[in-house]
Structure formats: C-alpha cells, structure tokens
Design a protein that fits this description.
- The protein is mainly β.
- The protein has a domain of 41 residues.
- It contains no helices and 6 strands.
- The strands form 2 sheets. Strands 3-4-5-6 form a 4-stranded antiparallel sheet, with no helix packed on it. A two-stranded antiparallel ribbon has the order 1-2.
- The radius of gyration is 18 Å and the shape is elongated.
- The protein starts with 28 loop residues before the first strand and ends with a strand.
- The structure holds zinc ion.
- Zinc ion binds next to loops.
C-alpha cells in the first residue's frame, strides 16, 4: 500500500463550506432567496444538501428538476 498523501503546507481550509452565518437549521424553515423551503425537504436524487423549491402544490429541485407533489 503506497498512498501519497500530500502534506498540508499552507492554510488551505476545506472544512468551511460557504455557510451563511446566523441561526443553524434548528427550525424547519429554510429561506433561500425568495423561496421558502419547509420541513427541510431535500432532493432524493441530488442528496440532502440540495433543497427543493416550494411551489403552490409541489416542490421542485432546481438542480435536476425533480418534482414531488404535495398531497393534502
Ligand atoms: Zn435534484
């Protein structure tokens, strides 16, 4: 097993991923721009980090266009 692991020679932080400062996702409401995503609904295709836009009766992923209808 020969694994070349480059030693970190500098201040390159990868852990920080453009998170906005403020409250954590403690509430079930996520406001991103002009859209409000409820219940942290994320795209089942893109992964939990991709949230879906809430429309009148459906939610849609802005990345892969996956649509899920909301039943009432
Ligand atoms: Zn998606």
């Amino acid at each position: 097993m020969t694994e070349t692991k480059p030693k970190a020679s500098g201040g390159d932080k990868k852990a920080a991923s453009g998170k906005k400062k403020g409250k954590l996702a403690s509430s079930v409401y996520t406001i991103s721009g002009e859209k409000i995503t409820r219940k942290n609904r994320s795209c089942p295709k893109c992964g939990p980090s991709i949230f879906m836009g809430v429309h009148a009766n459906r939610v849609m992923c802005g990345k892969c266009r996956y649509v899920e209808f909301i039943k009432k």
